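pinning this so it doesn't scroll away 📌
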Amino acid sequence: MPQDNEKSGKQRPPSEADTAPGSLATEAGTAGLLANISHELRIPMDAVLGYVDLVRQTDLDDHQQALMTQIERAARGLLDIIDDIHNLSRMEAGKLEIHRQPFSIRDCVDSVTQMLAPSAYRRGLDFIRVIDSDVPVNFLGDPLRIR
């Protein structure tokens, strides 16, 4: 950032200390950039979800309904990633909050599986999830961060 030279009233170019990795100016700039990016990505994703709702109000067969459910889940997954980007900017600014709550690890894994399975299928891969029976069903934590 240009800074005023108090004596001459002129601006000086940013110094190495201002732009060095890890400097406060760089961290603040990165946090702001991430916040802006997450905001700009959220708007079209909200539109996608709006269109999903509109399409669901039409006459769809069962297969089409299932596809719309997958589209909605994928869009919500992208919104979660966008939220993660926003949270990264909040973390860099020292303002990130972790929300501890009970959640089902199986539901969390199922959600990720449903999101990734179509991509694996398109590549000719089997996507198999296995959760050992010894793994507890419920956990306490932030399911969005774990996902």
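📌 and the second one:
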Amino acid sequence: MIFYIVYIASIIVLILHFTGFLARRNMEWAVLVAAIALFAVNILDYLSII
């Protein structure tokens, strides 16, 4: 379940990034957080931990 939530959140952050919403609000760090979260979920899924 968390796998899908992280993917949906990452897609939303990506859309907000390309529309300029994050840059106008000085929230570009959200892209890095989404990338790290997506990487972590993929690794944990690969290792069958979650």
